[in-house]
Design a protein that fits this description.
The protein is an alpha/beta fold. The protein is 51% helix and 13% strand. α1 runs antiparallel to α5. The longest helix is centred in the first third of the chain and has 18 residues. It starts with 7 loop residues before the first helix and ends with a helix. This is Helix-turn-helix protein.
């Protein structure tokens, strides 16, 4: 993952920051602006969060509502909107959902990724065989070609990790949940013992800790040049918490780090689990 590369998601995010600034300078709330534009209120926040693009005509109308009419300024924002619609590097792997497209775009430009994983090894540290077993297990009706496409995209994301600080806390149950069989688990746990990337910190939350903030579900916090983005995957779809909800994930991750085993003790625990396969 080359942090110097700018993804279309980040261009949309930068445009969103500017639109939020213009709205606040105009003294309007998100719902007030949505009402003037005859939009669903959520559309304003999706635009300002960089999770949705905007058509040229809509952008011009929005800017006019925000008091921006100078040709130079309008052209500047229009160029940002066009850049935000360009395909990302991952487009060569086929179509992905809008939420996944947004996530990969943010991940591409992140300089630090913090993850709490309660059930499975995170995709960024999965072996090919483990990834195949995960995809087949969670989506058994997917055609083989689609399974392989998703695996290749996952592996491509991993190759871009060289300059990213990756900090993961995983639940101890992951070491014992047999995904794909014993041989697959041996390979996967061996990778966790010796991650292929320099800037990886891995900690295990032991069973002995009992209930803790992470029992409510997994999440990922991505640090970018202009702030952070929080990602939560649920059975109903992916969401991007903001405000107090994003802050709660950040606090929870700090608590998880404090309660998990140290990286050295975590590695020893993984090695013991590996010996059981």
């Amino acid at each position: 993952m080359t942090s110097m590369e700018q993804s279309p998601t980040i261009r949309r995010r930068q445009l969103g920051v500017e639109l939020r600034r213009l709205r606040e300078e105009a003294g309007m709330t998100g719902p007030q602006l949505a009402a003037r534009m005859e939009w669903d209120p959520g559309k304003v926040y999706r635009l300002e969060g960089g999770r949705q693009g905007i058509k040229p005509r809509e952008l011009r109308e929005l800017l006019r509502e925000l008091g921006v009419t100078a040709d130079g300024e309008v052209s500047h924002y229009a160029a940002m909107a066009r850049d935000g619609k360009k395909p990302g590097w991952w487009s060569v792997y086929g179509q992905v959902s809008k939420t996944y497209d947004t996530y990969i775009g943010i991940e591409t430009s992140a300089n630090e990724i913090r993850c709490w994983e309660p059930l499975l090894v995170n995709g960024l540290l999965q072996t090919e065989a483990y990834a195949r077993a995960v995809i087949r297990g969670t989506a058994p009706d997917l055609p083989t070609a689609e399974v392989e496409r998703q695996i290749q995209l996952r592996l491509a994301r991993q190759e871009r990790l060289a300059d990213v600080r990756l900090w993961m806390v995983i639940d101890e149950s992951i070491l014992h949940r047999i995904v794909g069989g014993a041989e697959v688990m041996k390979e996967q746990l061996s990778l966790l013992v010796n991650p292929p990337y320099r800037q990886v910190s891995l900690q295990v939350m032991p069973f002995a800790e009992g209930a803790h903030p992470g029992t409510r579900g997994g999440f990922t916090i991505l640090t970018l040049a202009d702030g952070t983005a929080t990602y939560v995957e649920t059975p109903a779809g992916e969401i991007y918490p903001e405000g107090q909800y994003a802050d709660a994930c950040n606090v929870a991750f700090g608590q998880l780090l404090a309660r998990a085993l140290s990286p050295d003790r975590s590695r020893h625990l993984i090695e013991r689990a590996l010996s059981d396969y």
